[in-house]
Specification:
Layout lengths: L2 E3 L5 E3 L3 E2 L5 H14 L3 E3 L7 H11 L7 E6 L6 H16 L6 E4 L6 H13 L6 E4 L3 H9 L7 E5 L7 H9 L3 E5 L13 H10 L3 H11 L3 E2 L6 H8 L8 H8 L14 H9 L5
Parallel strand pairs: 3-4, 4-5, 5-6, 6-7, 7-8, 8-9, 9-10
Antiparallel strand pairs: 1-2
């Protein structure tokens, strides 16, 4: 598996398996199948409600812990955020059945961001997580965090797909050595992604599916990606993307699909900010 090196030297697989929107009662089986297919990066979150099922799959898989890269995420915490962040991480570790995670992400750029981040820095120093990062941070919030704290995020996980390519975000993260990770890489099939003629033509040229083309496009941009599936056949197909390479012309053709706007929700929209900021989950 190809890896990327984070700004603290930790190696992270460039392709993993995400469990967002997989019901808890189906997650253990899906993760078990993903591990059997060769995935070693697993991405979950407290907000997904399936950390325990991910942990059960890990425990029963027979895969060595040191061969896995496990990510989970912190939801928005009430003050005192430093105390609550620690409790949230400990709750996630208990559900996962692990003594540490490989990456802990601040899931949303809201609440006492500084208090949350400092607690995450402490957790990293204590070995409860090997790397720390953020999700859904736009450039202004990301730079603010970098410039006003001791530790720069190792990762920023943001919506990234052929219709919202995040070129400016990508350039800024590269400049500050923050690893770009994509969520929603398939745009959940919106804009007819899986039957798009541009993507389909590229796939035909390589004997690959549209999904494989999209994953290859992300990988060639050095973006970590975490496709989700509950189908073993698609899991196997999604990880089979290291035996071909898109040409410069094909990359340029996909670049032309960018609309420059989200297909899901805007973190600058006041109503969305209010909803995310007020939502609480049980730790």
């Amino acid at each position: 598996m190809q890896t990327v090196t984070l700004n603290n030297g930790v190696q992270m697989p460039i392709l993993g398996f995400g469990v967002y929107q997989i019901p808890a009662d189906r997650t253990e089986r899906a993760v078990t199948q993903a591990l059997a297919a060769g995935y070693r990066l697993l991405d979950t979150a407290a907000a997904y409600g399936n950390e325990e099922a991910v942990g059960d799959a890990i425990k029963n898989s027979g895969v060595r812990r040191e061969d896995l890269f496990v990510t989970t995420k912190l939801w928005v915490q009430d003050a005192p955020a430093q105390d609550n962040t620690r409790r949230a991480l400990e709750a996630s570790l208990a559900k996962l059945g692990l003594d540490h995670v490989d990456l802990y992400l601040m899931h949303q750029p809201y609440g006492d961001v500084y208090g949350q981040w400092r607690a995450m820095e402490t957790a990293q120093a204590e070995g409860l997580t090997r790397a720390i990062g953020v999700a859904n941070f736009h450039p202004d919030r990301l730079l603010d965090l970098i410039f006003n704290n001791d530790t720069a995020p190792q990762v920023n996980q943001i919506e990234t797909h052929p219709f919202f390519q995040r070129d400016l975000d990508h350039a800024l993260m590269r400049e500050h050595r923050v690893q770009h990770q994509a969520w929603g890489g398939f745009a959940e099939g919106k804009n007819d992604l899986f039957t798009h003629p541009v993507l389909g033509k590229v796939g035909e040229a390589h004997g690959k599916s549209v999904a494989q083309v999209v994953l290859r496009w992300l990988i060639q941009r050095d973006i970590v990606t975490i496709p989700k599936s509950v189908s073993p056949d698609r899991m196997a197909q999604n990880i089979d993307v290291f035996d071909f390479r898109l040409t410069d012309d094909q990359m340029a053709g996909i670049a032309a699909l960018d609309t420059g706007t989200t297909l899901f929700f805007d973190h600058h929209d006041p109503e969305m900010v209010a909803w995310l900021s007020k939502r609480r989950i049980d730790n």
